[in-house]
Amino acid sequence: MDKLMLGLRGCDKLSALKAFNSKYSDFSCQDVPGDTISDLWDLVFRNLDVPQLQKDVLLCCKTVARDKKAAKLVTPQLFARLLEIGQLTNIHEDSVLDDSVIQARRAVFNFTYHNQLCQSACIEASADINLIDELQQFNNSQVYDLRLLNCKLAFLFTAVSKEMRERVVENHGIAILTRIMYFVIYNGDDAKQARIESGKKYSSKGASIVLSEEEIALAKDIFMAVFNVTLHWDKTAEDIEVNPEVERLIMFVKYFGEGVNFNDKNESFCVMIAKFLPVAMNTASKFAKFLVPEVDAPFKGTVYLGKDVTLAKELLKSLDKEANRKQGNSMMMISLLSVLSKLCNVRECRKFLRQQILPPLRKVTKRPEEQNNVKSRVVKLMTHIDNNISTMASEFLFTLCKYNVERMIKYTGYGNAAGLFNRHGLLGMSGSRTRVEMSDDEGDSDTEEYKECEQGLDLVTAGPAKENTAVKNMTEEEKEYEANKLLNLIDDMQRKGVIKPGGVGPDGKVKEIDVAAQLAQIPDEEEPTSDDEDINNIRLDTNMFFPRHKPS
Q1: At what angle are helices 173-186 and 213-231 packed, to 10 degrees?
Q2: Residue 115 DSSP class
Q3: Would 78 disulfide with which of 31, 45, 282, 295, CB 3.0-4.6 Å?
Q4: What integer is the mean pLDDT of 19-32?
């Protein structure tokens, strides 16, 4: 930093800039005083319009602006000039979008990402509106770096500011962004467009449509921009301008969600697809027919009860693959669980997923998480270290069980589902608590094999009950000794604050209890006539204790 500033103050400014740019692609200003950074921006501003220095000054500016501390100290004059050089303040029909424009926009991106004042300056300069207008001219004649940068700016503007999101919608931004998506995917290929819009997954040669890395990068940023707008979208599904665009976009999403592009190479793009689907369904629920449409003619995909459930099948296949990895993509699993939960709102799709994940039980020889099938892998996610994944996996399975507590315990075990029941206030309850109307024609259909072994199952684990061989050969005195030892250990943990006494409250949730207060409320009773009666009066509440802190 000192050498750079010394060079900018001296005669050989170009050499100082080139030396800095060649050495650093990223620069930390953590140990640089704020006054020094302010002086640097002042020197950058004074040399920004020198023709032979401009390109290197912009590159230096972009590099330093990646640091949050430096970005927050930028001067309004410098940022305003960067907007002008980046041609984001007004439309230039005959202007040349050269490398200086690209570098200026990269610097604008970095400053806007870190600095709220820069975000306000973009709104004041109408940078978002001008960008949307320019995106209407999106085509292959533009440099790829510029096209990609414009897509990233569209994502950033719609992510950081509610006002910019609203202005994007008002200026037909969703329609423009969707058209860019089509252009990126089709790329002038009429045959590809016809295959996608007709729902056919394969070309005449049988090869699936796979996007290039460059197409994936462009499509991903456009998808994220559309996601930002629809996530905060307050308009209804009857909006005239947006409605047909969302219809076509969901049709496109359904096509690429059905296995054509679900592979490791394009995983990030698939995450964007998965994230967009539930938002689209929330925004316009009537478009669920595009995701699980009716089938009234011969069809190559997966059909269940007259509905095309190919998308649900492929998403479940992807979830199973991620869950089976040693280190699965957490963001991918969260997105897929979210989508599958939303698809369960379609009756036929929910019944199909239940048949795939929770088929009728037969002879149970292992706990659900110890088996080797899709159910076991989803049940394992219920106790995943990532709380978001465990919560969504539990909610997904609870939806498949139609919010029936007894059915949930039967398939997953009380231990795996205890956290879910606590969140819903269902601890200590049986039956069901239904939040949405569901059909009643889905009995458990227990097989004869399951009925024969049902009595020997442990409801806590949903697996075979294990005989307690430890106490089998103990005398009564030994059992009493072990019981007292256990109670002493529990008492010791309580006194040390490791656990706290608790019980199930009226709302079905675990709550802390005051043991002393409860004992004081117990009415005095006559003394028992025998030791046996005294023993029979002792009642053990299994919910007596619960951890004070969640396990790390």
Answers
A1: 160
A2: -
A3: 45
A4: 69
